[in-house]
Amino acid sequence: GFGILGSAVVALIVLAAFKSAIISDVSYVDYCWRIVLGCGAIPGIAALYFRLTIPETPRYTMDVEHDVNKATSDVANYLQKTDTTDENDGPGNHVGVPKASWSDFTSYFGKWKNGKVLLGTSMSWFALDIAFYGIGLNNGIILSAIGYADTHDADYNLRAYNSLKNMALGNIIITIMGTVPGYWVTVAFVDKWGRKPIQIMGFVVLTVIFIVMGAAFNPLKEHSIPAFIVLFTLLQVF
């Protein structure tokens, strides 16, 4: 949630920095999106650094490296809050655990009691990705469709700048009102309400809101932009 908010803030800052350049020559927008995209790599690089330097988990050491001694040592070191590496560590005790095969996979998930869990989880995620990313990646298009990002400046360059600025502001508003609260409500209540109830509730509410917004898109757009914004924000919450 904070990442989505950060991306909109970065876009607004970059646009503000290039305002005079864009107004004089709209092709400077090209620099803006390249800078915004490049800034998005910074958190990824930081995460990659920490991932490459963090000790492997005992589960990985056991299941992948099959090193029982190292896994045991890692657990003991972690519990003692000491370094997970020891210069006196030997080559380790590697055990010959057989690797899982496709036949293991099919025999396990071929049973309905196991397969339905995998199917339900993966298809729920698939359906959510279509809705969430389909909407989230096209916020600018939706804001334009409802007229929020449109401007009527006579100068083409100024119109382009103001349109992009409004899109960035609109994304910030939507994220602050919908996406971030939605994430943190779940963080606060997921253990009390349960993961299944929260997921089912989210899907039910999203289904209802999508049907309403799809069926009434043109009337909402023509007669009640505030109602559209409220419904769209609720989409982000749920």
TrEMBL record:
It is a multi-pass membrane protein. The chain crosses the membrane at residues 31-52, 126-148, 168-190, 197-217. Keywords: Membrane, Transmembrane, Transmembrane helix. It holds the Pfam family Sugar_tr. GO terms for cellular component: membrane. One of its GO terms (molecular function) is transmembrane transporter activity. It is found in: Membrane. InterPro entries: MFS_dom, MFS_sugar_transport-like, MFS_trans_sf, Sugar_transporter_CS. Residues 1-238 form the Major facilitator superfamily (MFS) profile domain. Gene3D superfamilies: MFS general substrate transporter like domains. Its main location: membrane. PANTHER family: SOLUTE CARRIER FAMILY 22 MEMBER (PTHR24064). This is Phosphate transporter. It comes from Rhizophagus irregularis.
